[in-house]
Specification:
The protein is mainly β. About 5% of the residues lie in helices and about 55% in strands. A hairpin with a 4-residue loop joins strand 23 and strand 24. It is flat and about 170 Å long.
Length: about 750
């Protein structure tokens, strides 16, 4: 049993030793010992450990220079990143890892290079067969250039190889090139020119980094053997045509340019086609024509001389030897040429006055436009044509007339039955007016005709007229008035030579028999509704106008309807209303007076000196109604046996010596056609002591005063009433008060 335990313990110890050895602290770095990076790229170095849960890391360079890189550690790894790689990163880097008291470190070398672009192939000029050309193979931004090698191939032929082994004194990007001079031949066209560059920087696998550029060769031939052919001939007739064709040899095929040599030796460009065709030849087309073949390499020219000879020509002018033109219209004279392809034109009048502004020449025609013919335009016009060294002239006569509008019929006024009217038939802007005739018809009957041949002819536009006076009747209504004008110019062809205007007659009848109907009455109570309807006979039917006559005699317009309606009348509506019937023949008028009344108001019944007097006193009882005109005032004394109407003067009743029997109730009634109103008072008469008659100074004074008061009160009542008339009525002019 103890022996077995020893065996088990020995096996456990061996297993623990193996496990402890497998968990030892270790470190790795990638890449292992060397990293090759291109300038401008991004490169990362990774340092990782095993056997330690939480290691720490530190990076440094071998010379303790700056890292020029970023460090990021996470868990058991740490990365050093250079982005972008530059010359400063060409160093040896050391990664140190710490786990407790243990420390591990490993180093790595970073080497850099630059080989970013393919080579560039450049030629000193286009490849022309038989002429030397320099080709350059250029490799840009190389480092280290001492490890660069360039080869140039033309098809399968190796042209040149070059390396750049030399001491590099500085770290910089260099552009290196290889140059070769060769003479291209036509057979080189289509061959590939290859520039191949190798940079020997990877010594481990000894495989260089390589770039190449290929360009296909195109060999050119400069233009030569330029030839011109002319059809039909180099000597031509004016108006003829010629075709010249040019050809030239070269590679690529030359482009053809035609030009003409000017007198000063310069060239005037004409065409870029191989064939140049000239039509309708003129004398000035004579000269030396140059054809030039041009391609990328060069040019070559050839010349030919053309001679153009004159040709006879004829001139025609239209519309003929003369033309009739209406003043104010536009006239076009045309001068045409045959057998002259490129004529020149000029126009002038019979007095040798040149014309330019309205001349338009194109090809073998020239037009003279008289855009607004006037009297000054009448006369002869001459067209001169020059063709080469020859001239021809042709003339045309312009004859004028003016007959632009139909006659105008005018009346001296509207046609009124039985009233004379003058009709005028006017023919405006006539020329020549001595050839004019005017006729005036009413229906089928000719009223008048007139010729103007006896009048003096003159160069001016005239308005001629014919006047006739007649008395229209209602039977003329519907008849047609015709004014006909004729211009007798038989030798001139124009239309129309006759114009006419018509007017249908309508005879008017002046307004008459005007009537006005007032409903319900012309005397109304305030607030009433009233309509006033006006009618009148006439032809055409008269138009009705309502107005109101103001105090100053002026009329205030109210309505243009036949019926005038006042919905709720007031005293201000009282007045004279005027109805007018109007048409073209005249006017008729009728007036109506509207009276608006109101019931009596504001009755005042007073007694002077008071309602209680002594026997023998003078008493004045006065009744007034101040706001309503046309009012009857009635004073009564009330009694059981019956009322007694008192004789009042303007509503005032005077008791000279009051007696006991004068005591009692007095009543005033104010009335008009609209209504009435009552008011009463009680007079008390006291008896004197001992019932004696005596005459005292006080009574004398009272008597005198009363004799003055009575007329004064009458005046007050008069003016009070007049003040309340409101401009409509006057008590002086109205009906007197009735007692």
């Amino acid at each position: 049993m103890p022996g077995k335990m020893v065996v088990i313990f020995g096996a456990s110890y061996i297993l623990w030793t193996v496990f402890a050895a497998s968990q030892a602290f270790k470190m790795e770095i990638t890449p292992e010992s060397r990293s090759l990076a291109q300038i401008g790229d991004s490169v990362s170095l990774t340092c990782s450990t095993t056997g330690c849960e939480s290691p720490s890391f530190m990076w440094r360079t071998q010379m303790d220079s700056p890292l020029y890189a970023g460090v990021r550690s996470e868990g058991t790894k740490s990365m050093l990143t250079m982005n972008p790689v530059s010359f400063q990163n060409e160093l040896s880097y050391l990664c140190m890892a710490f786990c407790g008291s243990e420390k591990l470190e490993k180093g790595i070398r970073v080497e850099i290079y630059s080989f970013p672009k393919d080579p560039e192939i450049h030629f000193s000029g286009p490849l022309e067969a038989g002429k030397p050309v320099t080709v350059k193979c250029l490799v840009p931004d190389v480092y280290p250039f001492d490890r660069l090698e360039i080869d140039l191939w033309k098809g399968d032929h190796h042209m040149k190889s070059q390396d750049f082994i030399e001491e590099v004194e500085r770290k910089s990007l260099e552009t290196k090139s290889l140059e070769v001079i060769f003479i291209p031949i036509i057979e080189d066209t289509g061959k590939a020119l290859v520039c191949r560059a190798r940079l020997h920087v990877d010594e481990i696998d000894s495989v260089p980094k390589e770039r190449e550029t290929t360009k296909e060769l195109q060999v050119y031939i400069s233009p030569k053997n330029t030839v011109i052919s002319v059809n039909p001939s180099t000597r031509l007739q004016e108006g003829g045509s010629v075709t010249m064709t040019c050809s030239s040899e070269g590679l690529p095929a030359p482009q053809i340019f035609w030009s003409k040599k000017l007198d000063n030796g310069n060239l005037q460009p004409l065409s870029e086609n191989a064939t140049l065709t000239l039509i309708a030849m003129r004398m000035e087309y004579s000269g030396i024509y140059v054809c030039e073949g041009v391609n990328l390499i060069g040019k070559h020219r050839s010349e030919v001389e053309l001679v153009v000879q004159e040709k006879p020509f004829t001139v025609e002018i239209s519309p003929g030897p003369w033309i009739a033109a209406q003043i104010g219209d536009s006239v076009v004279l045309t001068c045409g040429v045959t057998d002259c392809e490129f004529p020149s034109f000029s126009w002038e009048t019979q007095i040798d006055s040149p014309l330019h502004e309205n001349v338009k020449s194109e090809g073998t025609k020239s037009t003279l436009t008289l855009s607004h013919v006037s009297l000054a335009s009448e006369g002869s016009y001459l067209c001169t044509v020059t063709c080469g060294h020859k001239k021809q002239k042709k003339g045309i006569q312009v004859k004028l007339y003016s007959f632009p509008r139909d006659p105008e019929i005018e009346m001296s006024g509207p046609l009124v039955n039985g009233s004379p009217v003058t009709v005028s038939c006017k023919v405006p802007d006539v020329y020549p007016f001595d050839q004019l005739e005017i006729e005036l018809f009413k229906g089928e009957t000719i009223l008048e005709n007139k010729n103007f041949s006896e009048e003096e002819d003159g160069k001016s536009l005239e308005t001629k007229s014919l006047e006739v006076t007649f008395i229209p009747t209602t039977e003329d209504t519907g008849k047609v008035l015709v004014c006909r004008a004729k211009l007798h110019i038989d030798e001139m062809e124009f239309e129309p030579k006759q114009r006419q205007s018509t007017q249908t007659l309508y005879v008017n009848v002046a307004p008459r028999d005007i009537t006005v109907l007032v409903s319900p009455s012309s005397i109304l109570e305030e607030g009433s509704f009233v309509t006033m309807t006006c009618s009148s006979d006439g032809l055409p039917a008269p138009k009705i106008l309502w107005s109101r006559k103001l105090n100053n005699g002026a009329l205030q317009p109210l309505s243009e309807n036949a019926t005038l309606t006042l919905i709720s009348t007031t005293m201000e509506d009282s007045g004279i209303y005027v109805c007018d019937g109007i048409n073209q023949a005249g006017i008729s008028r009728k007036e109506v007076e509207l009276i608006i009344q109101v019931a009596p108001e504001d009755i005042k019944l007073t007694v002077f000196p008071s309602e209680s007097v002594k026997e023998g006193d003078t008493v004045i009882i006065s009744c007034t109604c101040g706001n309503v005109p046309e009012t009857w005032i009635i004073l009564k004394k009330k009694a059981e046996t019956g009322d007694t109407v008192l004789k009042s003067i303007d509503g005032a009743y005077t008791i000279r010596k009051a007696q006991l029997e004068d005591a009692g109730v007095y009543e005033c009634e104010s009335k008009n056609e609209v209504g009435s109103k009552l008011k009463s008072l009680k007079l008390d008469v006291k008896g004197r002591e001992n019932n004696r008659d005596y005459f005292s100074p006080e009574l004398l004074v009272l008597y005198c005063v009363s004799s003055l008061i009575i007329p004064a009160i009458g005046m007050i009542i008069y003016f009070a009433r007049k003040a309340n008339m409101k401009g409509s009525y006057s008590l002086v002019e109205a009906q007197k008060s009735k007692v």
